[in-house]
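Notes taken during the Thursday session

The instructor put the following on the board and asked us to keep it in front of us for the whole hour. The protein is Peptidase T. We were told not to look anything up and to reason only from what is written here. First, the residues (405 in total):
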Amino acid sequence: MSVTERFLRYVAYDTQSDENSTTVPSTEKQKILGAALAAELSQMGLQGAHMDDHGYVYAWLPATPGCEGVPCVGLIAHMDTSPDASGANVKPRIVEYQGGDIVLNEEQGIVMREADFESLARYKGQHLIVTDGTTLLGADDKAGVAEIFTAVEYLASHPEVKHGRIAVGITPDEEVGQGADHFDVEGFGAAVAYTVDGGELGEIEYENFNAANAGVYFHGVNIHPGSAKNKMKNALLMAIEFMNMMPPAETPAHTEGYEGFYHLHDMKGNETEAELHFIIRDHDREKFEERKQYLGRVAAYLDGKYGKGSVELYLKDSYYNMKEKIEPHMYLILRARAAMEKAGVTPQVVPIRGGTDGARLSYMGLPCPNLSTGGVNFHGVREYIPVESLEKMVEVLINLVTVEE
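Then, after some discussion, the predicted structure tokens were revealed:
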């Protein structure tokens, strides 16, 4: 089966995760694809193929004769899709792109405009898999799953290609920050691994944000407006005051590269109770800690101004920059560069303005940088991936695990 056929089959499964769920995995529907993936790995001839009770899929391809002593390399991707856009009833199609705008949905007037998406210019003459504009595509990260599966299928059927033991792991719930929560590192058996969960073809990532979630809760006193003087304490106004004390240029819309930010992603409330929910990101650990401390100072100031118990701040770290765990194993980056160059792909080492399972896994004892999938515009209805990028990444992964004679 080609990587494109495999990818189109996977995106038909709705595997959207749910950040508000208390179950593991966060949505039961992820297990439907997980069971199919485990069966597929078994049919390819991989050993130990199974899905565990938490929805994680594992298998391994034995080393070829003479390569049993080569350290085991893991290849990891995630099966869930982002809660940011619907992943149900995905209707993909392949567009032979010759430039200009792409009409995704004529009936609803949904267009991917070349002027708005400069990446399109890089793919003229290629075949782009797009949606009908009503759902995301799911290249994040079903493209990674399809690429890994196609690579190991090739290796399983070509025993003349020498390689050590290869472990395959597919996780649920990466998009809600829980993909590594129940990953069986010891049972996985890999010395090192790569997540295949990045963006455009050629990206290699081993630096990611330090990340935390913050919830700020405002407790007011509601009095009828007609008799509220010197009595009402409006929780909504306290929340607005809190926001006015946040650095206006330190948001995702004003930052790039290694620059960190505060991102307000949810707010609700009334005069009595209000909430602000942030994610905090910074590549630099010291600056990351300073960001959390700043939120604490603002909350403490407003709590003092409006009376003790008026403002509560809850902080929870999500993951940390994997750089310090990868730097002792920089051969992993050199190996990935060489695998790409051999496939005719120009490697580009870039920082992740986000996180992957690999960040958490690296702190769990499994050094795990991240490789591109070839996908573009993740988490939205204008997501796409070139067929040519899918095919090249299969070649890259085969090169990555091949033992040179």
